[in-house]
């Protein structure tokens, strides 16, 4: 074995153009959601901002919800299983680190949080996808033993608490503009979730 990695296949000009167009759509979508809100934005708004036609938009996405899902997934792609909170007596530091990362993520991209929140409230399909993500988290926590000795019902409660607290605090900060101390909020969420994950 020589130790050299296999060379990645070169992208064709067409592939690069397709990726660039997709990136323009995502950028346009985020700008449109930030300016007008998820509910008011149409596919035509996003396509116009991206400088493409409606047909080209639909070559890449099946609607504005798909654009928002891709924005969320792309932004969160840097997260790994190691970032997930862990239960048990020594799990508190991992829970705190998780909430720190979540708070920093959403406060650095408030327009993404706002659009996600609006989409869950107004779009049944998007809300169902959000619940599917929560269900996937329950399954993942069971698989990796995030809460040693916990039942599925206990894990489900902890996942629900985690999502609810993040949503409530982010809504207060980013939508209502209610001043909260970052450290105190992270400590409160950590204490509450840690209590359910013991």
Distinctive features:
mainly alpha; Arc Repressor Mutant, subunit A; 2 domains; 72% helix; 0% strand; HTH-type_TetR-like_transc_reg; transcription regulation
Description:
The protein has 2 domains: 13-68, Homeodomain-like (Arc Repressor Mutant, subunit A, Orthogonal Bundle), CATH 1.10.10.60; 78-197, Orthogonal Bundle (Tetracycline Repressor, domain 2), CATH 1.10.357. The protein is an all-alpha fold and 198 residues long. It starts with 12 loop residues before the first helix and ends with a helix. The chain has 9 helices and no strands. The chain is 72% helix and 0% strand. It has helices spanning 13-36, 43-50, 54-60, 64-75, 92-108, 110-122, 124-144, 152-175, 182-197. The model has no long low-confidence stretch (mean pLDDT 88).
> Overall mean pLDDT score?
88
> Helix amount, in percent?
over 70%
The N- to C-terminal Cα distance equals 47 Å
Secondary-structure element series: HHHHHHHHH
What's the domain count? 2
From the 3D structure, determine the CATH topology of the largest domain. Answer: Tetracycline Repressor, domain 2
Shape: globular
CATH class assignment of the largest domain? Mainly Alpha
Low-pLDDT residue spans: none
Using only C-alpha atoms, the radius of gyration works out to: 20 Å
Give the name of the CATH architecture of the largest domain.
Orthogonal Bundle
Tally the helices: 9
Main sheet, how many strands, which sense, barrel?
Answer: none
**What fraction of the residues are assigned to beta strands by DSSP?**
under 5%
Number of strands: 0
